[in-house]
Amino acid sequence: MSSSSPKLLVFDLDGTLIDSRVDLCNSVNAMLKHLGKPELPQQVIASYIGDGASMLVRRALGDPEGDSTDEQYVTAALTYFLDYYRLHKLDFTYVYPGVIEALEAIRAAHPTLPMAVLTNKPVVPSREICAHFGLDRFFFQNYGGNSFHTKKPDPHGLLTLIAEASSLTVHTIEPPQTIMIGDSDVDILTAHNCGARSIGCTFGLAPHTLEAAVPTHIAHSPKDWPLLVGL
Fold first, then answer.
1. Residue 219, strand partner residues
2. Which residues are within 8 A (CB) of 170 and not within 5 positions of it... i.e. 6 or more apart?
3. How far apart are CA 25 and CA 41, in angstroms?
4. Would you list the domain boundaries of the chain?
5. DSSP run (H or E) holding 141
6. How many angstroms separate the CA atoms of 121 and 143, rounded?
7. Could you report the per-residue pLDDT of 3-40, keeping only the tens digit for each?
8. Active site residue 12
9. Residue 7: helix, strand or coil by DSSP?
10. Which of 12, 51, 183, 224 is catalytic?
11. Class of the CATH-defined domain 8-19+93-228
């Protein structure tokens, strides 16, 4: 591995490793129906994904700034959404074509290169989904939106993974030796906020947000990942 090659790869989940759009949208609409509200088009709900379950629910309820005066109502809506999603998270969700092959290629070329997941999805369904699809075998850690006191794009989670990965290797890993891979500006800004590099995935849920965030590299398919990380 050359000096410019990464020492840590961190992946987003939704829109990067898996396409979970339909199950998330169905869960949001089930929540809205339960509350007696009109359902929303999938493309609208999909545009709300990326900042965690709470913001997804708030946006669907028409509270995008999180300034609702009825927090009990929002909490009840979030609870229903999470309970429904817990049961239906694997109805239509699938791993993007090329993801397994790309991860296997990276692992084969660099058996000791640490890889992890950092998502704003709650950590329990994130880990369960990765385990279901056999993705967990590639990652030393999987952190979710409720793993820390902050979520992406705050860099705390990424910095934590850098510190943990450093403890697994002989040398300390620095942020510039880390690549955050994701499909939205949230992931790219997370990398920017701690001095890491980034790969923006145009095949995901929010490719329209990538350009303004200015990722280090662009991937049009998971098959691009091995080349972009220096294989």
1. 201
2. none
3. 8
4. 8-19+93-228, 21-88
5. strand 141-143
6. 9
7. 478 999 999 999 999 999 999 999 999 999 999 999 99
8. yes
9. coil
10. 12
11. alpha beta
Assess contact for 89 and 158: CB atoms under 8 A: no
* CB-based contact 95:102 (threshold 8 Å): no
Residue 186 near residue 152, CB atoms below 8 Å: yes
Contact 116, 10 (CB under 8 A): yes
What is the SS3 assignment for 181?
Answer: strand
pLDDT in tens, 194-224: 999 999 999 999 899 999 999 999 999 999 9
pLDDT for 2? 44
d(CA 60, CA 72): 16
Q: Which two tokens stand for residue 144?
A: 């979710």
Tracing tokens 């994904």 back to the chain, one arrives at: 49
Q: How far apart are CA 84 and CA 139, in angstroms?
A: 27
Helix (H) or strand (E) holding 182: strand 178-182
Cβ(160)–Cβ(143) below 8 Å: yes
Distance CA 184, CA 15 (A): 8
pTM exceeds 0.85, yes or no: yes
> In the chain, what percentage of residues exceed pLDDT 90?
87
